[in-house]
Amino acid sequence: MSGTGKKNRLSLSGGRKPPEVLTAQGAYAPRSGWLSAVALLVLFSPARAQDPHPDDAPPLLQPTEHFYNALGRSVSVEWSADKTTVPAGGDIAVSLVVRGATNPHRVRKPALRDLPKFKVFEVLDAADPPAEKGAKEVRFDYVLRPRSAGVTEIPELQFNYANLAAPEGKQIRTTYAKKLPIRVTSPAPTVTAPAGPLEAPERFFHLADDYREPTEPGWPGWVGLVFAVPLGVVGWVFFWRLMNPDGVRLAKLRRNRAVARALDALRQAAKSPDPAANAAAAVRVYLIGRWGMPPDATVPTEIAEALKATDVPAERAAAAVEFFRKCDAARFAPKGDDRASLVEDARGMILNWEGAS
Amino acid sequence: MRRILSLVVLIGSAASTGAFSRPPAWFAFQNGVAARQNAAEARPLFLKVAADFDGEWQSSPASRTTGIALDRGHAHFLAGNLPQAIRAFHDGLALAPYDAELQHSLAAARGTIDYPRPAAPAERVRPDPPGEWRNRVAPWDLYRVAAVCGVLVVVGLGKRLTTRPDWAVPVAVAGGLGFLVVAGCGWQMHRERLADEAKPVAVVAADGATLRTGNGDAFPPRVVEKLPRGAEVRVIGRRGGWAQVELPGGAVGWLSEASLLAAQ
Fold this sequence. Notes:
A: 357 residues; B: 264 residues; five-stranded antiparallel beta sheet; 9 helices
């Protein structure tokens, strides 16, 4: 179909081959005569029943998107509204004004319901004022109801028109009705004041006590805490070494469990009621754990014999036996040695043997 | 001297709680409380106070405190604006989910709503009480616990590297485990915050809102019962003036955006 449509008129005479008609098998079969021509005209020529209006755009242009049959050299469109503020749930009456069309009475009303941009509105029907041929403008009225308070404008509307004086292929021109800002206000709450006192949980009649802005440690605080731990450990060790110059050697010494236990036991022995007995027991446990002395050696003579079988040098073994004799003397002799000094002697002996003193 | 000292203590305590920064609407609120025996006289007063508190909330980010949120909610509730009150409480809980006052006020407001009985568990409209880690633990509390664990680690490791007592390693291990627990709590709270931000809360503004299966009035209802005024839903998406929402029970449907109050 093209142009004015007259070329598509079928001639019933003139020697044209009769048209084909679809059969039940789906194949086209030739038919001849008036009947087939009439059938063809009725079934396949709807344009035959509706001749294009002389003031309409050519049928070829009709399917163009956003084309509303407007003709003219320079057509303009704009929105106009009776108000730009509407309460939520309320309606706003707007008009689309088309100017410059040479066929104002034939311009079609844009269906806003079908346009995606206008989905934010509920488009209600509104009667349009009649457009007369030759009028300078044509108005299309709409009633729009914003669906939410977030609607801020009547969207821009693309309006294509045809300038038939332009070369073929460049006849479609585009203009826009610019968007119109609107404001949707919140509905005023209905204050229904019942008679009598205001009933509500008691806590609602009190205001807050604290208006400080809530704070959080934030990532610098957490990062600082994570780094503070290793720094704290390093600092602890540093200051400990600073305050205890011999501390390293003593710490190494305490790595030996038997030595550590003996020193702890001697520390406790000094405070005990019988320091001599506890000191002797501590040294005995030390010899068993550190040097492998048999545990059944309890008296000095047995200890002397037992130490011969170990790696303890002879002079050290003699010193140990002498220590145990002093302890026995302090415990059982009428006038024994100072029991407190025996603890110091034991400690000094162990440190000496371990090379820490 | 004693008087001066007590005055200094009073000023200090007032300053520490921000009492000197009370908004002007605070005093208007007290007028409303004084008129509480006459609802017809009190409600308009609270309505104005609520508008003033809303303005205070909107004026600047610095004025958005849990105290203002609580006052907004109370004023709106006493003015009869239940949805706005619930929204205000949610605004405050977005700042401090652990705030007990806001949680209690929100629970009290919810207690005045007649939630419909659901036909299925997914259609439950009554919201769950706050039970996430964010609602129970404040970030500063977590920080203090982490600091104590850090001290344990420092002491334990320091002793282990110096005098090596027997208790050094257990103490350091306890501190380390405490750190791990704190990290786990922090991670869970972070996940909860992200989930909360992905689905913001909106409040139904008026009775009779119908949850539909699609974004249009032509779609059939998703649930039989209409949503009551003040019901809380979580917004999943928006399209064409409609919001896809999730009920507390889990059912998903569409509500018109005009029927919802979103958090500010």
